Amino acid sequence: MADKYEIRRFRAAEKDAPDYARGTDWLQAVGFGFHDSRRSDEFVDKIMAMYRRDDRELTGVYQTGDVAPHSLAADIPVATFGTLRKDLNVGYGRQLRTHMVTAVTVRGTHRRQGLLRRMMTEDLTAAKAEGLAMAALTASEGSIYGRFGYGVATSERSIKVDTGPRFGLRHVPSGTVEIADRKVLLELAPEVFERVHRNTPGSIVRQEAYRQNVSGTIGRDGNEDEGIKCALHYDADGTVDGYVSYKFAGWDTKPYTVEVVDLVAATDAAYLELWQFLGSIDLIQRVSWSDAPVDDPLVWALSDPRCVEASDHRDMLWLRILDSVGALGARRYPVDGTLVLGIEDPLGFAGGTFILDARGGEATVSAAPTDTQPDLSMDVADLASIYLGAVCPVTLKAAGRILEHTPGAAHQAQLMFAVERAPHCLTHF
Ligand SMILES: CC(=O)SCCNC(=O)CCNC(=O)[C@H](O)C(C)(C)COP(=O)(O)OP(=O)(O)OC[C@H]1O[C@@H](n2cnc3c(N)ncnc32)[C@H](O)[C@@H]1OP(=O)(O)O
Questions:
Q1: Is residue 51 annotated as a catalytic residue, yes or no?
Q2: Atom of ligand 1 at shortest range from CA of 82
Q3: Residue 29: what are its φ and ψ, rounded to 5°?
Q4: Can you count the helices (H) and strands (E) in the chain?
Q5: In ligand 1, which atom is closest to the CA atom of 120?
Q6: From the alpha carbon of 81, which atom of ligand 1 is closest?
Q7: Most CB contacts within 10 A, which of 15, 194, 248, 340?
Q8: Smallest CA separation from ligand 1 atom 26, residue
């Protein structure tokens, strides 16, 4: 395979740079892999500008020999892989620089020849060599990434909220909500998100596309999205501490529905009061949101919790630990304790037996002496799953994924890996 394909890595170039076309070819290959329509040159320009702001690295796999007559040219990659780096909130406000993997595609006529495996192992090897302890992705299918050591670390779900007569929250507003021009979100969305990110375990800093999309500046087709509407929440001092970006689903959708595009609230009050606003929109009987938290205060604040119809509970953030000592040492632990963790890593990045000793919130992590018996043993993917406190080690033990050698160790891990509030990741990438 090595001589049939060549891997090239590069950054998105400036519009006038000679190698700008390399990035646009790469992007068209990504679009093809996800069954998108071919994007206009103007849209591609906008995406490339956003990629430059994120400082993404683009990886393409190219055919080295002659391509079949009439088929796509050799400079269109047969496989793509993109990466960017942002901070992950690992609980109690602590941040861990994370290698984010996205835009993974292999052209159908070149699939199952090991191209994904080659791109992934080379990329993770390079990230580890640069000192990163964590990689992350969001997956198109649940069956692909476990083999590479990724584990599900947060989940999300879709909700439909009945905003008819039975809708009502047990909450006395402390702030106010006003409608704004959607364009204000270009500036405000990153500011509000930054506050939310600091408060939310499992949150990853957002890529440039978010503020463009939620403000309707760059819609799904690359054009302005005039359907986007925006409401801002102000605290008692008049500071914007939350927003909702939303769209009306149209008069053909019954019951009449508003779809939440993005709901970001830096305080509990802002969250509930934005829902009070959504529940009060005239002519609307339903509000839907596809990125809702699994553990949602809305349900508990409603007088009638059955106003919320939840569906499609699904994996969201997948983590891949590249350095067990680095990742475990980055966390804060709410209870004292010592655990010896035996970690299997088929790719050889993070395996070994480690002593995790937590005192007063801080951890000391060290490689255990040879022949030390672990309290718990697990695959590196399972360590990733319990890392943010969203997946319970006792449940993974019950599932046969974590082996408990010391009675009570799984429960001890549950207590030690707990975080201050339910993890939720509002960043899709
Ligand atoms: C982070 C993201 O971007 S998520 C988006 C992922 N991309 C997509 O879903 C787009 C459509 N799919 C594709 O482009 C390709 O089929 C990919 C990228 C999923 C797989 O690429 P390939 O080059 O065919 O994978 P590769 O040959 O390296 O396979 C590696 C292993 O994964 C397995 N595998 C690959 N794809 C899948 C899948 N969809 N489901 C289950 N197993 C899979 C292979 O069987 C192989 O297993 P093995 O090593 O045990 O033999």
A1: no
A2: 3
A3: -65, -40
A4: 11, 19
A5: 28
A6: 3
A7: 340
A8: 114
Q: How far is the CA of 106 from the centre of ligand 1 (A)?
A: 8
Catalytic residue among 51, 145, 243, 271: 145
Distance 379 CA to ligand 1 centre (A): 20
Q: Where in the chain are the domains?
A: 5-132, 156-313, 324-416
- Closest by CA to 355, choosing from 381, 373, 332, 334, is 373
* Cα of 141 from ligand 1 centre, angstroms: 9
| Tally of CB atoms within 10 A around 326 | 18
CATH class of 5-132: alpha beta
Distance in Å, CA 322 to ligand 1 centroid: 20
Q: How many CB atoms lie within 10 A of CB 389?
A: 25
CA atoms within 13 A on the CB side of 306: 2
95-106 and 134-137 strand pairing = parallel
Tell me which CATH code domain 156-313 carries: 3.40.630.30
Residue pLDDT tens, the chain, 429 long: 668 999 999 999 999 898 899 999 999 999 999 999 999 999 999 999 999 999 999 999 999 999 999 999 999 999 999 999 999 999 999 999 999 999 999 999 999 999 999 999 999 999 999 999 999 999 999 999 999 999 999 999 999 999 999 999 999 999 999 999 999 999 999 999 999 999 999 999 999 999 999 999 999 999 999 999 999 999 999 999 999 999 999 999 999 999 999 999 999 999 999 999 999 999 999 999 999 999 999 999 999 999 999 999 999 999 999 999 999 999 999 999 999 999 999 999 999 999 999 999 999 999 999 999 999 999 999 999 999 999 999 999 999 999 999 999 999 999 999 999 999 999 999
Q: What is this model's ipTM? A: 0.97
The residue whose C-alpha atom lies closest to atom 42 belonging to ligand 1 is 144
Which residue is associated with the tokens 């090239």? 8
Domains 5-132 and 324-416 are alike in CATH topology: no
Q: Is 145 known to be catalytic?
A: yes
